[in-house]
Amino acid sequence: MSSIKVVIAIVTAVVLTAAATYLAGRRTVKELAGQNQSLRQQLQQAETDRKAAQARADARELELQKVRSDTLELQRLREELKTNSHPAALPTGFYVGTDQPIYVTYGTADPMLRSLIRALMNDSTNAMAKGQAIFEKTCAACHQRDGLGKVGVAPPLVGSEWVLEPGGQRLARIVLNGLSGPVTVQGRVWNLAMPPWRENLDDDAIAVTLSYIRSSLGTNKATDIRPDLVTTARQELHPGPESAAELMQLSAQ
To answer: Second label for 173, Cα 20 to 30 Å away, from 6, 66, 133, 223?
Structure first.
């Protein structure tokens, strides 16, 4: 082989080697670029997930703060109820035990509560089921779902002479106007305050609720309450909450 051919062979080998090295380098650069792009996408997704998780954590913290605030307010109201003995000392509002508790200003109509009651009354179930639903959404918050009451909160409804009285006139007036001051239930004196429901329950809603309490709650087996009885009681306006003494005089007339 001549010297020229040797030189050509060497040059060719060098060129081929350089080309192969260059092409391999290009492939490596492309692979690295692809990996970098993937890493950037993963980092962006991780940042998005982190922000979403932080937003959920912030929302949970706000909800917990609201629950803590509502709980403290409810405890304050219950403590206030323990010592109420005069109409002037009645609380400014009360909680209604719905899936999401509603704070209702004392003696005023609440649109959310009235909407809830209308929805329950428009249900296709029978009157007793409607009465139970309203009881569990409102009355049970204080008197408990079993109607046995709770010390420092509300007296029992099961076996209560106020609930089972013939006719139910006193009971209707208590629900419409509220009750303040000492009242004896089953031989025990309770000195609490009950808010009026006049502005948030219509006559039909009160009638089905009291009928459920009187005839189906626990061992109670008294007669139902008619809507017209509630209508009559509503027309007899009372300046503030009822008292046990006033109600006893009413039943004696």
So the answer is: 133
User: pLDDT averaged over the chain?
Assistant: 82
Q: For residue 100, how far is the Cα from the chain centroid?
A: 1
CATH number of the domain at 242, please: 1.10.760.10
Model confidence at 87: pLDDT above 60? no
pLDDT over threshold 90, residue 238? no
Neighbours of 84 (CB within 10 A): 18
Q: Higher pLDDT residue, 148 or 53? A: 148
- Distances in whole angstroms, Cα of residue 99 to Cα of each of 61, 65, 149, 190, 246: 20, 18, 20, 29, 36
Range of the domain at 28: 1-68
- Phi, psi for residue 84 in degrees, rounded to 5: -70, 125
Q: What percent of the chain has pLDDT over 70?
A: 75
Show the DSSP H helices in the chain as ranges.
Answer: 3-83, 111-121, 127-137, 140-143, 161-164, 169-177, 203-215, 227-235, 244-252
Whether 210 contacts 172, CB under 8 Å:
yes
Place of tokens 């982190």: 50
Is the confidence at residue 252, as pLDDT, over 50? Answer: no
Quote the Cα angle for 173-176-181, to 5°. Answer: 70
Into how many domains does the chain fold? Answer: 2
The 10 Å CB-count burial string (b at 16+, else e) for 62-76 is: eeeeeeeeeeeeeee
pLDDT at 86: 43
Look at the pTM and tell me if it is higher than 0.85. Answer: no
